[in-house]
Amino acid sequence: MPIKIPDQLPASNVLRNENIFVMSETRAATQEIRPLKVLILNLMPKKIETETQFLRLLSNSPLQVDVELLRIDDRPSKNTPTEHLDTFYRQFETIKDRNFDGLIITGAPLGLVQFEDVIYWEHLQTIMNWANKHVTSTLYVCWAAQAGLKLLFDLPKKTRKEKLSGVYHHTIQHQYHPLLRGFDDSFLAPHSRYADFSPEYLESHTDLDILATSDVAGVYLAATKDKRNVFVTGHPEYDSHTLHGEYVRDLGEGMEPAIPVNYYPNNNPDNKPIASWRSHGHLLFANWLNYCVYQQTPYDLEHFSADAFTTDE
C-alpha cells in the first residue's frame, strides 16, 4: 500500500521516479480504507529535502498512510519557499483538536543551543504534551530525541566535545522487541549530532527499553514500555549525500570539521559516498508503523484514549 500525499507536493514526483508507490489525494478518496493518520513536525531548515526523506521511509509498508506536514511557527524560512509552506504545511492551532495515529518530530540544527534559548522551545513542549493525549505513538529523531528526553524524563542537555558525524556500527540489545523484528544483529546507521546518549546514563535515569547501541555513538534506539514514545538518536532518513552536504557546508563556514566516519570510500571526500544504512532505515519505519502505530491505534480516532495502552508486546 502507498502513502497518501497532496497531489502537487514536490516529493511526489521524486518518489515516483524512484518507483516508490505513492497515491494522490484524488485517487485515495475513492478507496474505502481507513488510512493511518501520520503527522510530521518538520524542524529542519531544508524542509522539502527532509519531507522527501521521511516520506520515502514511510512508503515501505503494506499500510496506507495519510501524511500531513506541520510547521513549528510562521517565521519566514531561508531555505523553503513561502508558497510551499503555505500550501502544504499546517499550523498547530489548526490540528490541535484532532487525534493522529503517529507523529514524527524531526531533528533540528540546534545541537549547541540550550533548550531555553531555542526560540520555539515553549511551543514545542506544548506540541509534545499534546501528543501524549492525541497521538498513538511519537517518533523523536536526533535533536528531537534529546528534547523528548528532557520533556518526559527531565534529562539535562548533554553535549559532546566534538560533533559525532559518520556512519556507525550498532548492536541490537533487545532481540525480540517489535521494533527490531527482522534486524540483523549488527547494522549501520548515520549520525550527525553533538548530543551525548550513553546507555549507562539512560539506564540509570529512565525506564526506557534500550534497543540498539554503538560503542562509539552510544544509544541509537530506545522506547518507552508502551511503545508510545520512540527515540532515534541518528538519521536513518538521510540520503547518501546528506552527510556530504553537511561536511561541505561546515568547511565553507571555516569550522574545520572532521571527515564523517566510515562514510566516504577510502575515507576520501573526493569519492562518492555510498548509503549503507538504507535497508535498516526502511525496516525501522515499517516496524514503527506496524507495531507501535497500526497494532495499537483505535480504528475510530475519535475514541482515542491514552489510558487504553498497555506494555504487552
TrEMBL record:
SUPFAM superfamilies: Class I glutamine amidotransferase-like. It catalyses: L-homoserine + succinyl-CoA = O-succinyl-L-homoserine + CoA. GO terms for cellular component: cytoplasm. It comes from the Bacteria. One of its GO terms (molecular function) is homoserine O-acetyltransferase activity. InterPro entries: Class_I_gatase-like, HST_MetA, MetA_family. This is Homoserine O-succinyltransferase. The keyword Transferase applies. Transfers a succinyl group from succinyl-CoA to L-homoserine, forming succinyl-L-homoserine. It holds the Pfam family HTS. It is an enzyme of class 2 (transferase). The record marks S192 as: Important for substrate specificity. It comes from Vibrio thalassae. GO terms for biological process: L-methionine biosynthetic process from homoserine via O-succinyl-L-homoserine and cystathionine. The gene is metA_2. Keywords: Acyltransferase, Amino-acid biosynthesis, Cytoplasm, Methionine biosynthesis, Transferase. The active site is at C142, H235, E237. Pathway: Amino-acid biosynthesis; L-methionine biosynthesis via de novo pathway; O-succinyl-L-homoserine from L-homoserine: step 1/1.
